[in-house]
Design a protein that fits this description.
Largest sheet: 4 strands, antiparallel
Structural class: alpha+beta
Strand content: 25-35%
Helix content: 25-40%
Order of helices and strands: HEEEEEEHHHEEEHH
Number of strands: 9
Strand order of the largest sheet: 1-2-3-4
Number of helices: 6
Distance between the termini: 68 Å
Number of domains: 2
């Protein structure tokens, strides 16, 4: 009996294997990558089943035709917490880590700028936009001040055009005050305001008459 080695989903298997019987969702496991040789009689594949909001079950399969005509199959299964499936090169797919996944970013307020940037690039969104690097390139200096007798830290960012933006940080319990942490939070809050300013500038440019 000759086995088909090039099936990648149930619809293709139905065409190539006339007596196939399927129970449930035959495409629950999605093909990530696969390589095979009909002449040498081998096939290796990696498939994954995504459980929304939980992670992916990954299955690796190796099929080899032996010298005596028999077939050997080896499989390994593992679980990758928080991973999701995304498109890859050569019409394949790949797993991405939690910080780059769409769903965790939708659920979490802590999604990083790097993760969002990767999502934008993966989705092929190429229209003019503001990027984190553009924010940082506008900043020429930063100054900090802690008001005497308080836990209030103020960060003042000076931009290339001379405009200044401030950000603040404070803690309710004086015992929790930390100068370095206060500076980091104040800087982050000041820098965050740049998104709106640069977004307005870009939108003004895009809406200008040609």
């Amino acid at each position: 009996m000759t086995k088909t080695l090039h099936n990648s989903d149930i619809s293709g298997a139905r065409k190539n294997v006339k007596d196939i019987v399927v129970v449930g969702n035959g495409d629950a496991f999605r093909l990530l990558c696969k390589a095979s040789s009909k002449s040498e009689g081998w096939m290796k594949s990696t498939k994954a089943m995504e459980i929304t909001g939980v992670g992916c079950v990954v299955q690796v399969t190796t099929h080899q035709r032996n010298h005596d005509g028999t077939n050997s199959v080896a499989e390994a299964v593992t679980f990758v917490p928080g991973a999701v499936i995304t498109d890859d090169e050569n019409n394949g797919r790949k797993l991405i880590v939690p910080s780059t996944a769409d769903e965790p970013c939708k659920r979490s307020k802590g999604c990083t700028e790097e993760a969002i940037e990767r999502q934008i690039e993966d989705k092929g969104l190429t229209a003019p936009r503001i990027t984190p690097d553009m924010l940082d390139s506008e900043i020429v200096s930063q100054d900090y001040h802690v008001f005497k007798g308080s836990c209030l830290t103020v960060c003042c960012l000076t931009l290339k055009n001379g405009f200044t933006i401030t950000g603040e940080s404070a803690c309710a319990s004086p015992e929790n005050f930390n100068d370095e942490l206060g500076r980091d939070i104040a800087f982050k809050n000041a820098r965050e305001k740049l998104w709106a300013f640069l977004g307005f500038r870009l939108r003004d440019k895009l809406s200008a008459p040609l």
